[in-house]
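Researcher: Next sequence.
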Amino acid sequence: MESIDNSQYDGRIENGSLLEQIKKENDIKAIAKEDYPVLAAEIREFLLQSISVTGGHLGSNLGAVELTMALHLSLDLPTDKIIWDVGHQSYTHKLLTGRREGFENLRKFGGMSGFPKRKESCCDCFDTGHSSTSISAGLGMVKARDIKGEHHTVVSVIGDGSLTGGMAYEAMNNASKLDTNFIIILNDNNMSISENVGGVSQYLNDVRTAEKYLDLKEGVYNTLMKSKKGEGVVESIRRAKSSFKHLVIPGMFFEDMGLTYLGPVDGHDVNAMVRVMKEAKRCKSAVLIHVITQKGKGYAPAERHPARFHGAEPFEIETGLPKKNRDKANYTDVFSTVMCKLGQRNPEIVSITAAMPDGTGLKRFHNMFPERFFDVGIAEEHAVTFAAGLAAGGLHPIVAIYSSFLQRAYDQILHDVCIQNMPVVFAIDRAGLVGSDGETHQGIFDLSFLSSIPNMHVMAPKNKWELSDMLKFAITFQGPIAIRYPRGEAYDGLKEMRKPIQYGKSEVLYEEDEICLIAVGSMVKEAETVREELKKKGHHCSIINARFVKPLDEEAILAATKKHQLIVTMEENVASGGFGERVRCVLDGSNCKEQLMAITLPDEYVEHGNVDLLKKEVGIDTDSILNKILGKVSGKGKKTK
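Model: Next structure:
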């Protein structure tokens, strides 16, 4: 059995009793120092047992156990503030703030979120879910603290992966001007610790943050600045200091930005991190603590395969393998296969992703065509403008990004791609409801924000074969074009209905009268089920596969109004700016508005939970749609026996 490494247990503590002693924030401070390794092992065992059942972010949380313990030992929550970048590594934080009892419902509807949530605990001071935001948010809290005359500590925790996002550097540049305390912790799980550099660094940290040194430095600075030539002397000292630091300090990049650099420090040594936190709290400036951790620490499968255990489905602890084997390909698999085939046929096709080669299905393309694959890190804005440059250079770029992350590049899509009408293909994975990750990850806005941009064209496939056909169509299209498809198993129905893709044209799947369902992408499958239920109740029903959300097939829409008493649009997107709203605009001038019913998601954020349950909650499941339609046509519709 490959489980947690419990070698640090000494036999004195059994049955998880240390973790059970922690009922609320700050209870960890009652734990004896010699028991810190035991508590860390208990937390890892708890996380492993829990996440193997519920699913969730495992690797990042196993790697941040001691780091989180050190923060809770060094701070007074909720007065002091911790801002977790992304927030997928906050499970230990939840445990240490008294939420152990909620883990059986982790990421379930109505249960505990997998990310920090202000509404969930007063110890969660900022909601997160996307990366590279914690330093900006922390800096805002520091300024608010100072303006209000308060004195608590603010800590922003950011991973080395999140430092690939430009927003983090914008925030650090701003933070460099601070003359007040602000602590940034860089959780680096991709670099090793050099003992020689670490030893020199620790010595300099002790000297530079010692109270006597800080007092002396401040006194000398003030005295010199009062003299006539003081400014020049200070600048000379700074240059000399900088030259020496470049020789011996590994964090000079951060020092050059104006941040005080401490580290690197072993992120699995609680006492070492508590010491460096004490040093950092004495500085009247922005301080960056460089912490080295191991992702997946303590569980061998997660250590060997960190990407697989980033966001894990329920799995068998003994093997690390998923409990449920996938029998059918999902949409990401289909995209991956088609991309490889297209890459073989066309040497000008290139692919771009933002730190998600596995999640978007581009890993195989990377293996086959490494010179034509680009992972730009967590930098969606750069990814899009980079793609525009590739297109301007004569290539055919395909940008694969999750729907919720593409929101971060709205300006670049508008300004750099669409104004110039660049032939960039956007492959938008995880469109629609994605489930357990909740509000920050639901892909329910892309139809709206993409359709608002001139020159953008938007498609959605009804099944896996249509995704393939749309990709082939998109790479020949001379302009910006997006294909949005859902998370999960690819629908393999309607295989016999595979008409060629024509620009701006929908596809009639069933043609009758009375009721016409015009469905977008994933909702075609739902439309089929609704149609069968309507037929059982004696109603005639047509289905049109929209295919294009922009441009609309206005001819088909207006033709449907002449043959049907009720037009029902169906989409997995918010109402505002969505497909239904655009269809309503088409019908505005035709006196047909009363015929339209738009089935959409509400204009609100959708929390975490099972997708089927969420669909029922927001009213886009079969029963909800059927009841709405029957309520509209009751006593009016044409019926047959």
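Model: The chain is about 40% helix and 15% strand. Residues 1-14, 191-201, 637-641 have pLDDT under 50 and may be disordered.
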